[in-house]
């Protein structure tokens, strides 16, 4: 847009013209945003806020009167506040490169002043102290011109041809050299001891190797001797084992033949004898059964014949009673008893015949009792 200006992030826009601004500044300071500027009536310029660098190489005399050339680098910039921008703008706006030149001159003066109050030993050994003192003494002066210092680095300190710094470092160099020599001697001694230890280890290894080889050779000789003796012994053992195996085989063959004979001769003979014995027992049992059957048949036939003759016996007995003089004392019961008595007498006669023929006794005889006449009535035969 025509008339609208915007500063860069590392710049401050200075607008001059018009009435005087706050604090009596001859221009307005704008940073971080844009501003509309009337052409012709206003003028715009820009002041850098970026980091700047200045190098210093100054010959300084120490407290001891020894000249030292000190080289340092200063990093600085314009302050961000409005007062610092106004101070720097009024001094460097037309020639901003003069900021580095002026800063270098300021720091060179402060270096000469501070180094003049220090010894070479302090300067060499306490560089940070030197830098801090230079910064502190220059801070106020740099603020007046709108600059702030970020860092100061002492790059080198040189005493020229005087050799003071080198002489100062000689004891330390000698101590370092002594330490280096001692370390070298220790290293050499350690190397020698290591070599000696390696030689001893090698000798011990060779000795152990010789011993092992001698033991191995002796073991080989013993093994060969055992092998030479083992031939006949092994053959004898083998023959003995063969004989033992043959003997065991013969014993097994004899046992097998014995078992075969038992199976072929003894067992069949025993089986045949058992068969004959069983047949004889079966024939005897058969004959016994037949005899018992025959005897039983004869008794049955005899009993049958006697039973068939029993009515005739009773009849004959009754005929004998017909001609007898019988007195019945108890009436009808007496007649029944007479009939029963006749039958009992017939059975008694039958038993007598059986005993005479060898037949078994009747049930009454087996019990040790004979047939008795009934006692319920009395029969009298005359």
TrEMBL record:
InterPro entries: Band_7, Band_7/SPFH_dom_sf, Flotillin_C, Flotillin_fam. It comes from the Bacteria. It is found in: Membrane. GO terms for cellular component: plasma membrane. Residues 358-382 are annotated as: Disordered. Residues 2-172 form the Band domain. This is Flotillin. It comes from Streptomyces piniterrae. The lineage of its organism: Bacteria, Bacillati, Actinomycetota, Actinomycetes, Kitasatosporales.
């Amino acid at each position: 847009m025509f008339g609208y200006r915007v500063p860069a992030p590392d710049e401050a826009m200075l607008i001059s013209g018009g009435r005087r601004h706050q604090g009596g500044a001859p221009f307005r300071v704008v940073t971080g945003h844009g501003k509309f500027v009337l052409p012709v009536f206003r003028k715009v310029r820009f002041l850098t806020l970026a980091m700047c660098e200045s190098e210093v190489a100054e010959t300084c005399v120490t407290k001891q009167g020894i000249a030292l050339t000190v080289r340092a680098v200063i990093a600085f910039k314009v302050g961000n506040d409005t007062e610092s921008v106004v101070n720097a703008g009024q001094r460097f706006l037309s020639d901003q490169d003069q900021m580095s030149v002026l800063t270098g001159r300021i720091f060179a003066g402060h270096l000469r002043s501070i180094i003049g109050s220090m010894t070479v030993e302090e300067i060499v050994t306490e560089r940070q102290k030197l830098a801090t003192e230079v910064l502190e003494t220059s801070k106020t002066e740099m603020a007046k011109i709108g600059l702030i210092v970020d860092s100061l680095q002492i790059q080198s300190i040189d005493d020229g041809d005087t050799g003071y710094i080198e002489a100062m470092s000689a004891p330390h160099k000698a101590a370092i050299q002594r330490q280096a020599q001692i370390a070298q001697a220790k290293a050499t001694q350690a190397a020698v001891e290591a070599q000696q230890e390696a030689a001893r280890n090698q000798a011990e290894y060779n000795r152990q190797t010789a011993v092992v080889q001698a033991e191995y050779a002796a073991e080989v000789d013993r093994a060969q001797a055992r092998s030479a003796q083992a031939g006949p012994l092994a053959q004898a053992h083998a023959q003995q084992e063969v004989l033992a195996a043959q003997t065991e085989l013969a014993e097994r063959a004899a046992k097998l033949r014995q078992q075969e004979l038992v199976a072929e001769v003894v067992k069949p003979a025993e089986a045949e004898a058992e068969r004959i014995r069983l047949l004889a027992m079966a024939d005897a049992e058969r004959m016994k059964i037949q005899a018992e059957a025959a005897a039983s048949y004869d008794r049955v036939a005899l009993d049958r014949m006697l039973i068939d003759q029993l009515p005739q016996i009773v009849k004959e007995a009754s005929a004998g009673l017909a001609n007898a003089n019988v007195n019945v004392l108890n009436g009808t019961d007496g007649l029944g008893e007479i009939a029963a008595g006749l039958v009992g007498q017939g059975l008694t006669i039958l038993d007598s015949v059986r005993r005479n023929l060898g037949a078994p006794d009747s049930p009454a005889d087996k019990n040790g009792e004979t047939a008795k006449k009934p006692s319920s009535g009395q029969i009298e035969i005359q």
